[in-house]
Design a protein that fits this description.
- The protein is of the alpha+beta class.
- Helix content is 45%, strand content 18%.
- It folds into 2 domains: 201 residues, no CATH class; 128 residues, no CATH class.
- It is built from 12 helices and 12 strands.
- Strands 3, 4, 5, 6, 7, 8, 9 and 10 form an 8-stranded mixed beta sheet that branches. Strands 2-11-1-12 form a 4-stranded antiparallel beta sheet.
- The relative contact order is 0.14.
Length: 361
């Protein structure tokens, strides 16, 4: 639940993703760039589209790393220089809803022929320049990129990751500078309604521009994000199922134990009632024994759980492995279930006939 409420650093609502792969086409850099421009122009004409962009990688997805040198930064002996990055179209930040904190994001000045520009996230700016990153330079190989903007941190690899330095480059510039056409990108389209409703129009647009190209893979950004929660969701289902089995076993075990105890003490119960014990006293005796056993079981369970929390720590998010509310809630649940299981034996004990019980073998 905490992971589902995590802010990924962008707005995932009403966003369609269409993965386009040009690797099968023998396109040079100019043809690739022309295809992307035509694709964006075609997508913008779809009535329900509020904005479109392109991205080399879409979060949450494994992002690339490359060796970068920050001009003027004194690297430690063991400090690595690899930084995660993504290549995006200039409209990426506005379409994804990523806040620009300072400076400017890519715009028309980030075209292929313009001076190389980079946009960094807040963590990158604070780590290398104490927040004052505008105008500073990053070297990728021998190519210097000037930082023109600082954007908010986001989740790049997974919803559980801690803030990390991150750099964005402009797709048109990157292709031009390194002569490496990006043949596999994702069209990102923000819509005014159901994003899947425009999927046929997007497929038709790709087919019209490049008839022999394979149809793009279509999904929503919400569906894309849900894949990151698959492992956690499976763990939650598994642990929840095991927890349900435990509660059932506690109920059956306590009921069986107390029923057996009442059966063995039938003569004693009959004698107590013959000597004047009231029904509520007999029921209280059974409940008291059940409460002692339950208290011992829950106490031992809590001690064992506290000793093994480190096993579960890696599976938790924004919650302590020794969360007091969770421990108290689980203990209260087990106590309630165990005492409820004592109800039937206690009721049966309180209804024992004294004379019948005294003749009981």
């Amino acid at each position: 639940m905490n992971l589902q409420r995590t802010d990924p650093g962008f707005d995932p609502d009403r966003v369609l993703l269409a993965s386009v792969n040009l690797a099968q086409k023998d396109y040079d850099g100019q043809q690739v760039g022309l295809f992307y421009e035509q694709l964006l122009a075609r997508a913008e004409t779809i009535p329900a589209v509020a904005g479109v962009t392109l991205a080399d990688r879409v979060p949450i997805h494994a992002q690339y790393q490359t060796t970068m040198t920050v001009e003027g930064y004194d690297y430690g002996a063991a400090e690595h220089r690899r930084v995660h990055f993504n290549r995006v179209w200039p409209s990426y930040f506005s379409v994804m809803g990523i806040p620009v904190l300072r400076g400017r994001a890519f715009d028309g000045s980030a075209a292929a022929a313009s001076p190389p520009a980079a946009v960094v996230n807040r963590t990158m700016a604070e780590r290398f320049w104490n927040g004052d990153a505008l105008g500073k330079r990053i070297f990728v190989g021998d190519v210097p990129f000037e930082v023109t903007g600082i954007v908010a941190d986001g989740k790049y690899h997974g919803l559980k990751e801690s803030p990390r330095p991150f750099v964005y480059f402009s797709i048109p510039q990157y292709q031009s500078l390194f002569d490496k056409p990006l043949t596999n990108v994702t069209l990102v389209a923000r819509t005014t309604g159901d994003p899947l409703a425009i999927a046929p129009a997007v497929r038709d647009g790709v087919r019209d521009i490049a008839p022999s190209l394979a149809a793009p893979e279509i999904s929503t950004l919400h569906d894309h994000l849900s894949t990151d929660l698959a492992a956690e969701r499976m763990s939650a289902i598994l642990v929840g199922a095991l927890g349900t089995v435990v509660v059932v076993l506690v109920t059956i075990g306590m009921y069986g134990l107390m029923s057996y105890s009442v059966a063995r003490r039938t003569r004693e119960i009959g004698l107590r009632m013959a000597l004047g014990a009231r029904r509520r006293h007999i029921a209280g005796m059974v409940f008291g024994r059940g409460a002692v056993l339950t208290g011992l079981g829950v106490g031992i369970g809590l001690l064992v759980a506290l000793g093994t929390t480190r096993i579960l720590a890696s599976r938790l998010h924004d919650i302590s492995a020794t969360d007091p509310a969770t421990f108290a809630g689980v203990a209260a649940l087990l106590v309630s279930v165990a005492l409820l299981a004592c109800y039937a034996p206690a009721r049966r004990a309180s209804r024992v006939d004294a004379m019948t019980a005294l003749r009981y073998e």
